[in-house]
Amino acid sequence: MDFGPWLARQLKQSKMSQADLAQEIGLTRAAVSAWITGRATPREETIVKIAEALGTDLGTIHTRTADTLAGLPVSWYHRPGYADGGREFGNAAAFAFRADVGVLAREATQNSLDERLDLDRPVRVRYTLHELTGKFLARFKDEIRWDDLLPHYRAASAQDQKVGRTIAAGLRDMHERDRLVLLRIDDYNASGLTGDDYETGRFAAVVRRQLDSHKSVRGAGGSYGLGKATLWATSRLGLVLMNSTLSEPHEGRTERRLIGRLDLPWREVDGTPWAGPAWFGRPDPDADDANVARSWWADEGGAERLHLSRESAEPGTSFLIVGAHDVASLADATENGDVEDSDSVHRMHHRLREALGRNFWAAMTGGGTGQPLLEASVRTLRNGEEIIAEARVDPRDTQPSRTRALQAFLDGTTVERLTESGQVAMTTVPLVVPGRGGRSDGEHRAVVLVTEAADGEGKPNRVTTMRGNRMTVRIGWVPNLPVGTNLFQAVLLAGRAAGDDAPFADEAEAFLRAAEPPEHDKWGQTEELRMLYSPSAYRRIGALTTETNKAVRDLVALPAKKRKGGSERLRKRLAVGGRKVARPVTALGPPTLEELDAQIDGDGAWCVTGEIKVPLGGDSWRPVPVAKLEVRSGPRPVLGWSELVAVHNCEVVDGAIHIAPGARSATFRGTTDVSTHPVRAVFSGLVVELRTDKGGQA
C-alpha cells in the first residue's frame, strides 16, 4: 500500500487532522498534505517522529500491511431499532432455503463459479469443517468479543420466535457440550469482495444488502441475490466472518480485508431496542454515527486468530460460518437414534462431498483444450488437528457415466448411435428463444448426450439438465421408454454449456436464467420470465423437454432385429419344465410414487405422468393419485382431475389405479381440472400423493 493512502487512513482512524500531525512532528500542514497526495515522501528521521505521533513502530510504517495500534479498536456495531417501532424477527431471505450443508454447498459454490477471475483456470473451492473445544473455543470467543455479544444473544433467544429458538439451541449446544463447529469456505481465482463498504460493488452486495445479485458474467448461476443468505442460515448463531483478497485494490490494498456480520431478530437489551443485524469491524470516522463499523485491514496474526488465514495472495474470499449446523444431518441422526451427535462433523463432511459431486460434477470436468471450471475439496479439523484429510472431489468417482458423456463432448469423440460399450451418442434439439426488444425469435440448438449407466450411479434412465455454469439444474425421468431399453444416463447442455459456437447461446442463456426459481432447481414459469418475455414464454421450455425426451428415446432405442433376437434368447433362458407350484405372495408394503413428470398445458392445467413402484405382492393395492398445490405452511389445497388414464401395467377404475397382477411398476397420466385451481398453475407448485387402501377403494 502506498504511503499516502495509508497515512490518510491512520489519521482518520486516530481522529487526527493533518494539522494535528504537523504540529506533533514540527512541520507544516502543507508537508503532510504533500505526503498524502503522493507529491513527496518523508525522510527517515521524519518517519520516526510520525511513528511516535501515531503510537506505532517503524516496521508498521515501512511495511504498511496493517493499521497502527492508534486506530480505533475492532468492535461490534448493532443497528439501532427503527424510529417508527418496526420490528423484524429474522432475515426473510434465509428462509428461502433449508439450513442444510448440501444446499449451502450448492449456493456458495455457484457464487464462487460466477466470480471466477481467470477464465483459463478453474476456481478452487475448499470447505473446512473445524470443531473447537476447551481452550481453543475460549480463545476464539475472546477474538470475536463474545462477552459483548452475549447480552444480545440472550435477549434474542428468549423470544418465542423461529430464529430465537434456533439461537437458543445453538447457545445451549455450545455451553453444555463446550463445543462449536466452524465451517469455512475458501475460494481462489475469484474476484473477492471488491468495492466500497457502502456503495455499489461486490462487498456491499454481500455484506450490506439483501436481494443484490451483482452478477456481471455471462452464464452466471445466481440472479436473485438470495444464495448468500444460506451462509447465515447455516449458522445457528447467525454469525459469518469474512476475509477477502481483492482482485482490484481498495484504499491501495488487496490482502486481508476483514468484516463480520451478525443476523439476529429485533431485541431489547437493557431497555434499548436493536433492529437486527450487527457488523464486526472498525468504527468508521467518516460515518454520521461514529459507531458504524466498516471493514478493516488485518495483519497475518489477526486473521489467524479468527481462523481466517488464507494460503496465498491469490484473489478470493474466505467465509467462516460460526456455529454451523445441518438440518439434514439432524434428520439422519434421528432415524439412527443418534440425536446427541446430530451435528457430527464426520456426517457433515460426507454430505458436503456428496453435494459437491452431485451438483458440480460437470463443472469439475475438463476436456479438449480446456481445463475444468471448478476444483473442490473438503477437509475436517478438530482444534487445529486434521481428523479427515483434505480430498479433492473427483467427478469420475461421483458421476462416472455423466462425466464420461460430457468428457466425450468436450473432446469431440461422440458418435451418432450407440454400438459399443462406453460410447457416447450425441444429437441436438431445438429451443426457440423468444426475441426481446423487437427482435425476432431465434433457434438455439441444445446438445443431448446419452451413454450407458454405470452400476451404483443413482437412478438410471434420467436426463440431467444444465446451462452455462454447468451446475445441475434438474434431473428428470424419461417417460414412455420401450420395454427392454438398456439402462442409460443422459445430459442436456443448453445455453453456453452447448458451446460458444452454438447458435443463440447467449440468448438461450439469458432466457433459461430467467426461468429458474431462487433454488435454481428447474426451468419453468417465473415472474421474471413473464416480465422479460411473455406470459406464454414458459411453453418453449415444455417444448424443449418434449424434444429432449424424444431424442433420448431415439438414441437408446434398440434396432428391431436386435430386440427380437434378444427376446428369443431371453425366452429360451427363462423356459422351465416340470410342474409349477403356486406360492402365496405376501405384500411387502403399499405401492409408492417413484417418479413424477409434470408440465402446464395451454389451458393452464397440470399434466402429469407418474410411475408407481410396486413391491412384491403389492399389486393387490388400489392407490388413488391425489393432486395438491404446494404451499409453505398450512394444509395443501386438493385439485380435481379432469382426466386420469392408465398408460402401462394398470387400469383406472373410479379414480383408483388397478395394477396388473405381478407387475412391479405401473404408469398413469393425469390432467388437473382448472376449475378446481385456487390460483393459476403458473404461480404455484404441485404435489401428487398416493392414497392407498389395500384391496379396495381409497
What's this, in brief?
The chain is α+β, with helices and mostly antiparallel strands and 698 residues long.
Please outline the helices and strands.
Layout: H1 3-13, H2 18-25, H3 29-37, H4 44-54, H5 58-63, E1 75-80, H6 101-114, E2 123-133, H7 134-143, H8 146-157, H9 162-177, E3 179-188, H10 202-207, H11 229-233, E4 235-245, E5 257-263, E6 267-269, E7 272-283, E8 293-294, E9 296-297, H12 300-305, E10 316-324, H13 327-335, H14 345-360, E11 374-382, E12 385-392, H15 395-398, H16 400-411, E13 424-433, E14 442-452, E15 462-466, E16 474-477, E17 488-493, H17 505-514, H18 527-532, H19 538-556, H20 560-574, E18 592-600, E19 606-613, E20 624-630, E21 638-639, E22 641-648, E23 650-653, E24 656-659, E25 665-672, E26 685-691
Parallel strand pairs: 2-11, 15-17
Antiparallel strand pairs: 1-7, 2-3, 3-10, 4-5, 4-10, 5-7, 5-9, 6-7, 7-8, 11-12, 13-14, 14-17, 15-16, 18-19, 19-25, 20-21, 20-26, 22-25, 23-24
Helix pairs in contact: 1-3, 2-3, 6-14, 8-9
Describe this structure in words.
There is one protein chain. With 698 residues, the chain is an alpha+beta fold. The chain has 20 helices and 26 strands. Strands 1, 2, 3, 4, 5, 6, 7, 8, 9, 10, 11 and 12 form a twelve-stranded mixed beta sheet that branches. A five-stranded mixed beta sheet has the order 13-14-17-15-16. Strand 20 and strand 21 form a beta hairpin. Helix 1 (3-13) crosses helix 3 (29-37) and helix 6 crosses helix 14. The protein is elongated and about 100 Å long. The model is unreliable at 219-225, 330-340 and 561-580 (pLDDT under 50).
